[in-house]
Specification:
Oligomer: single chain
Number of strands: 16
Bound molecules: alpha-D-galactopyranose
Largest sheet: 8 strands, parallel
Strand order of the largest sheet: 7-6-5-4-3-2-1-8
Radius of gyration: 21 Å
Number of helices: 11
Order of helices and strands: EHHHEHEHEHEEHEHEHHEEEEHEEEE
Structural class: alpha/beta
Helix content: 25-40%
């Protein structure tokens, strides 16, 4: 869990923004809710390498340098994440790391980086499965533990090979701040649950919660889907100026509890029909996370049947807790149903006897 600059700020990032964001992550309770990695995405770089061939920061935007900034981030109890690109240039046109993997990983380690996002622009002729292992080796050689976030947009089916190479891998093209994008991304995750587990996660991209393009109901559904998918939760909004509702969504402790569940089992979509989607995820304590979504444009009654949640026929009784409302609902025989507003959801924790 963390925060990444890209979705809200694109290439317009600076030392000032990072320091204010770091303070806001602490003051808003986001850090203590689990958002630990503060990740600078593309456009922190200077336009060329230095005379030694090392990557350098843009000194106009980062006057005190990234080593200093990393210390400031760490001083606030956060971890430092930084972006580079596996090809000849980053997506924004800054120097890429092709052929300089060991050098750049070493430089990142010297700066105190804890998390590397390695992107995939300008990689003509390369394949993910033979390129990213160079990064695994480069990081190991530094002696500093760093998360390796593989960002090749699912071009080379990373779920087939990335589990042993990095900690998380993008499974989609870039998210947009729209309901259509969330629906499209969810559809692309349906077959991928067998590949995720502790320390190796499918990454359906960073969160758009709070960026203004969706309703609060849609943001709650977006966040709930990521939780049921065991996805990395990288907030992508302006945490310095977020509404109470946005903060409440991003810090919903019981929803985050599903996302971060120790069993690490990614949820399955157990049904999709004209109005509804049901997702289910087995949790470490033997209960299930269950997500009901109304994906239609009108109010609709949505039903989750316990046999489809568990994946076995038979009648059973579930004891239901509502994780957004943080309240017990009680016992339900055979199914649970709720009438939901368009694109709204219910996220439950269900135990069966
Ligand atoms: C690609 C990545 C994004 C972001 C941008 C930065 O599009 O997929 O997540 O890092 O590049 O330029």
């Amino acid at each position: 869990m963390g925060w990444n600059s890209w979705n809200r700020f694109g290439p317009f990032i600076s030392e000032h923004l990072v320091l204010e964001t770091a303070d806001a992550l602490v003051e808003s309770g986001m850090r203590d809710a689990g958002y630990r990695y503060l990740v600078l995405d593309d456009a922190w770089e200077g336009s060329a390498r230095d005379d030694e061939g090392d990557l350098v920061e843009n000194r106009w935007a980062f006057p005190n340098g990234l080593r200093w900034l990393g210390d400031e981030i760490h001083r606030r109890g956060l971890r430092f994440g930084l972006y580079t690109d596996a090809g000849t240039r980053t997506c924004q046109g800054y120097p890429g790391s092709l052929g300089a993997e060991a050098r750049d990983a070493k430089r990142f380690a010297e700066w105190g980086v804890d998390f590397m996002k390695v992107d995939w622009c300008y990689t003509e002729g390369l394949r993910g499965r033979s390129t990213y292992p160079k990064w695994t080796d480069a990081i190991r050689a530094t002696g500093r533990p760093m998360v390796l976030s593989i960002s090749e947009w699912s071009r080379d089916k990373p779920w087939e090979w990335a589990g042993a190479v990095g900690h998380m891998w993008r499974t989609t093209p870039d998210i947009a701040d729209t309901w259509a994008s969330v629906v499209d991304i969810a559809d692309r995750q349906v077959e991928l649950h067998p590949f995720a587990g502790p320390d190796h996660w499918n990454d359906p991209d960073m969160l758009e919660v709070g960026n203004g393009g969706m309703t609060d109901d849609e943001y709650r559904t977006h966040f709930s889907l990521w939780a049921i998918l065991a996805a990395p939760l990288m907030a992508g909004n302006d945490v310095r100026a977020m509404s109470d509702t946005t903060r409440a969504i991003l810090t919903a402790a019981e929803v985050i509890g599903v996302d971060q569940d120790a069993r690490g089992a990614q949820g399955r979509r157990v049904r999709r029909d004209a109005t509804s989607e049901i997702w289910a995820r087995p949790l470490a304590d033997g209960t299930y996370g269950v997500l009901l979504i109304n994906h239609s444009d009108a109010r609709a009654n949505v039903v989750a049947r316990w046999d489809e949640v568990v994946g076995e026929k038979g009648s059973r009784r579930g004891v239901v807790r509502d994780l957004w409302e943080r309240g017990e609902i009680g016992e339900r025989d055979g199914f649970f149903d709720r009438t939901l507003a368009p694109h709204a959801c219910a996220l439950l924790r269900v135990s069966f006897d």
